[in-house]
Design brief:
NAD(P)-binding protein; 6PGDH_NADP-bd; HIBADH-related_NP60_sf; alpha/beta; N-(1-d-carboxylethyl)-l-norvaline Dehydrogenase, domain 2; 54% helix; 14 helices; six-stranded parallel β-sheet
């Protein structure tokens, strides 16, 4: 018996922020989509500009339109509040049979609660937070952590490695909140990494070691995000070209603080980095960047925030 070929799913992407734009771009450029990607953003002009740049995409004027026309709906939004505001609209509609892939950083129970509401409404839900700053997202170098029902995760996997990311940490069969859990714990390591690179660069400068020499050591021994942030500090982009807004980073820190309180654990190094993030926010305001931790360490050591 001849099988009827499966129709290619229609994808939509909600959110054209620092990560949403490069992820959606790579879905179009690398995903070999048979149907134009549907884009939605609260400020629609950003979606139209992005669509013109990446091609093979169309813009939905409303969330309702984007969801109603799609089979798989991705979202990558500013914070947890934005996620719940968006899904309050989505959950008023008929979502039976639709798969939602949520890439925002959220608290564990908030993720599980949202997943339950989607599933109770007849949809599928995969939490898939990512590791990697926007430059890495642009180069499809993200590490993605999908969690949820195994059959749902398997529908997402084909769009990850080689398309939007370089690797996948597959948590199939685990609760969606387990992906958020992994992201929160991993955030501890990322923030402490930025702190350690900052302190090393300030020590090098104060003791007379050329920044370029330290950067060579970082490239040779550590590489990856260590090199990315070392370069951002050397180039001065940490204060000239904000990439990860300090407000967004501080929200992630709040999730860590909640988890550490629940677990009765003290994270000494993370507390130091958090203090430096507060200094960045006071000094640079909304234009502050998480890499500005370097500027805070500089100020603490008697140097100017800007290198």
């Amino acid at each position: 018996m001849t099988q009827t070929p499966k129709m290619a799913p229609q994808l939509a992407f909600l959110g054209m922020g620092a990560l949403g734009k490069p992820i959606s771009k790579n879905l179009v450029l690398n995903g070999k989509l048979e149907k134009s990607l549907i884009l939605w953003n609260r400020t629609s002009s950003r979606a139209y500009e992005h669509s013109a740049q990446i091609g093979n995409s169309v813009v939905a004027e409303t969330i309702k339109d984007a969801v109603s026309m799609s089979d798989i709906v991705w979202s990558c939004l500013a914070d947890q509040d934005a996620v719940f505001e968006t899904f309050e609209i989505i959950l008023k509609e008929d979502i039976k049979g639709k798969l939602f892939v949520e890439c925002s950083t959220m608290a564990i129970e908030a993720t599980n609660d949202l997943a339950r509401r989607v599933v109770d409404s007849g949809g599928e839900f995969v939490a898939m937070p990512v590791f990697g700053e926007p430059g890495m997202a642009n180069r499809a170098m993200l590490t993605c952590i999908p969690a949820g029902a195994a059959e749902s995760v398997q529908k997402v996997v084909p769009y990850v490695v080689g398309i939007i990311g370089r690797s996948i940490v597959d948590l199939s069969g685990q609760s969606p909140g387990s992906a958020s859990h992994a992201k929160i714990v991993g955030t501890v390591m990322v923030v402490q990494m930025i702190e350690s690179v900052s302190e090393a660069h300030v020590l090098a400068e104060k003791s007379g070691l050329p920044a370029e020499s330290l950067h060579k050591v970082i490239n040779a021994v550590f590489g990856g995000p260590f090199s990315v942030y070392s370069n951002r500090m050397m180039s001065g982009s940490y204060f000239r070209e904000p990439v990860i807004a300090i407000g967004t980073a501080r929200t992630a820190v709040e999730h860590v603080a909640e988890l550490t309180q629940q677990s009765s654990i003290q994270l000494g190094a993370f507390k130091v980095a958090s203090m430096h993030m507060e200094m960045v926010e006071k000094y640079a305001g909304a234009k502050g960047d998480i890499a500005g931790i370097y500027g805070a360490v500089r100020m603490e050591s008697g140097l100017k925030f800007e290198n």
